[in-house]
């Protein structure tokens, strides 16, 4: 049941594999949005020049005048078409890899189980093949559910971005500025609205692919309930990791519990835990568990990294031993999405301190 060197290697391998798939889609999204904006930029520069020329007494054109501005409306129409195409392309690219992510997750889960058994038994690859496999229909259901969610979440992307750009156009800029500054400021705001669709697409890609991976891992665990005692929440313990994930790292959970219920774009993993070898009929002493303890890792970080992760108030409460790592995560409910763990606010933590009398 111990997580030893082999298990840690498998965890790293799983993360590299999954991050490679997710990272590829993120790079493709960023490049596609950048190319599209580069093609639209000229049309928006012309539209801004026309609107500045149409201003009267230093006032930005009214909403009615903007609706009649030929170049502005042409730029909006081009942008809407571009956003629609980007959303369609995004769906095609990401949905193509959902079955692979789901299938790989089941295989990685089997490898993680095998890595927790005695190294002398048989080769890991052979041993992994002895575990029960999640039913193919269950994997298909995960793919179908993920496909439906991605499709429904990406449909509003172009509309939301277009609305943000229309709003930026109507608000305009302060015309008393230098003409170049006027153009630069408005163009940046329009680009920000355009890239709002990209940013939401990035969140969808990472969150839904990771959740599909976890769902397949969950199914694989259920197929091997006789061999497992539960699962463990494992975070990537670095500066990018939020306080909630630092707090949840290493926590044990029953096999039937879904998870990890990480926040959007969270990188945490579900690691199956093998039953004690003695319960499995293996008469061998088990090795020491090598899974890093979150607090030990955190205490070894440079002070500036600790501050960047926790913020000044959380760090002060930890330093003063008024809270511990178990207080850092709070389960939250979000409409239209599953429950998830997110960092407890400083107000939540101060309430814990007051209630506990620490």
Verbal overview:
By secondary structure, this protein is mainly alpha-helical. The protein is 63% helix and 6% strand. The chain has twelve helices and five strands. It has helices spanning 5-54, 63-68, 70-114, 124-128, 136-154, 157-171, 179-223, 243-248, 294-300, 303-310, 312-319, 346-356; strands spanning 228-234, 252-253, 269-274, 329-332, 340-343. Helix 1 (5-54) packs antiparallel against helix 3 (70-114) and helix 10 (303-310) crosses helix 11. It is elongated, with a radius of gyration of 26 Å. Mean pLDDT is 88; it is low at 121-129.
Question: Which terms summarize this structure?
Answer:
single chain; 358 residues; mainly alpha; 3-stranded antiparallel beta sheet; two-stranded antiparallel ribbon; 12 helices; 5 strands
In short:
By secondary structure, the protein is mainly α. The chain is built from 12 helices and 5 strands.
Order of helices and strands: HHHHHHHEHEEHHHEEH
For the biggest sheet, the summary is:
3 strands, antiparallel
Percent range for helical residues? 55-70%
Label the overall shape.
elongated
Backbone CA Rg? 26 Å
Mean pLDDT value: 88
Widest beta sheet: strand line-up = 2-1-3
Quickly give the structural class.
Answer: mainly alpha
State the distance separating the first and last CA atoms: 35 Å
What is the count of DSSP helices, taking H or I runs of 4+ residues? Answer: 12
Strand content: 5-15%
The residue ranges in which pLDDT falls below 50 over 5 or more consecutive positions are: 121-129
Number of strands: 5
